[in-house]
Amino acid sequence: MKIAHALASALTALSETSGNNEAKFEAQLLLQHTLNVNRAWLIAHEDDDLAPEKLAGFTQLVDRRLNGEPIAYILGEREFYGLNLMVTPDTLIPRADTETLVEAALSKIPSHNPSSRRTAILDLGTGSGAIALAIAKNRPQADVIAIDASPAALAIAQRNAGHLQIGNVQFVLSDWFAVLENTRFDVIVSNPPYIEDTDAHLQQGDLRFEPLSALASGADGLDDIRRIIDGCLLYLQPQGWLMLEHGYNQAQPVADLMAQAGLLNIETIQDLGGNDRVTIGKNPLIVSTHWD
Questions:
Q1: Is the CB of residue 269 less than 8 Å from the CB of residue 254?
Q2: Taking the complete model, does pTM exceed 0.85, yes or no?
Q3: Which residues are paired to 122 by β-bridges?
Q4: Where do the structural domains in the chain lie, given as residue ranges?
Q5: Domain 90-282 architecture
Q6: What's the CATH code, domain 3-67?
Q7: pLDDT per position in the chain (292 positions), as tens?
Q8: Three-state DSSP class for 28?
Q9: Within this chain, domains 3-67 and 90-282 share the same CATH topology
Q10: Which of 122, 139, 170, 236 gets the most CB atoms within 10 Å of its CB?
């Protein structure tokens, strides 16, 4: 079978569950992965014969996609903020909306620190390491600690850091702040679980294949966000920032929780789709007296 014919057949099958444009893009990605070539090569060689073993491998990948498996898990990778990241079913799939959180963090982290003290960043629930690595890559003068409660996810994040040769990130196994002692950060970021436990979307689309622990968080989706906000003042520098991704309809509850905790300058930032996506708040000038 010619490469063009194999792509056309896959396009027809994938179009039943996706639009034509998306199906074409996915078919090309899957065949590129099978042949280990780029899109330009694929277009230039569309009249080439596809070896039977390659066709069989390609067909298997298309079948996996038809069964609903996310394209990122099939390929084993996903691009995020210019970084090519390994992803597995042990990690959440990085999404473009989360780049809003990275942009918010970078806006508060100086690109050139006039003092000798390096900027300290904490990423809670790092998963594949997407947020931590994007920040660390773009702010090499910062030191990032990336925390996750899943050893499997943390191993993927460490592999991503090694592959990308990003050395200013330390990976720590912890349930949120549990293992941190006498440590304060200039910026704390997190894309925590924030979907309601009973949300029907958890049984639909890509979410069916992603780790539930990274998605759902209590009856209103705010259990983990409450934990982070309740503990954040112990770990923020004076004037340090807490930045949380959340659902499109959770901005006001998150802002209210931040205000109740004593954070100031609370602001919600919209993603590229115009949805409320990230809420930030600043620690008061006075250092908490719980410990110093």
A1: no
A2: yes
A3: 145, 188
A4: 3-67, 90-282
A5: 3-Layer(aba) Sandwich (3.40)
A6: 1.10.8
A7: 999 999 999 999 999 877 778 899 999 999 999 999 999 999 999 999 999 999 999 999 999 999 999 999 999 999 999 999 999 999 999 999 999 999 999 999 988 766 677 999 999 999 999 999 999 999 999 999 999 999 999 999 999 999 999 999 999 999 999 999 889 999 999 999 999 999 888 888 888 989 998 998 999 999 999 999 999 999 999 999 999 999 999 999 999 999 999 999 999 999 999 999 999 999 986 654 444 3
A8: helix
A9: no
A10: 122
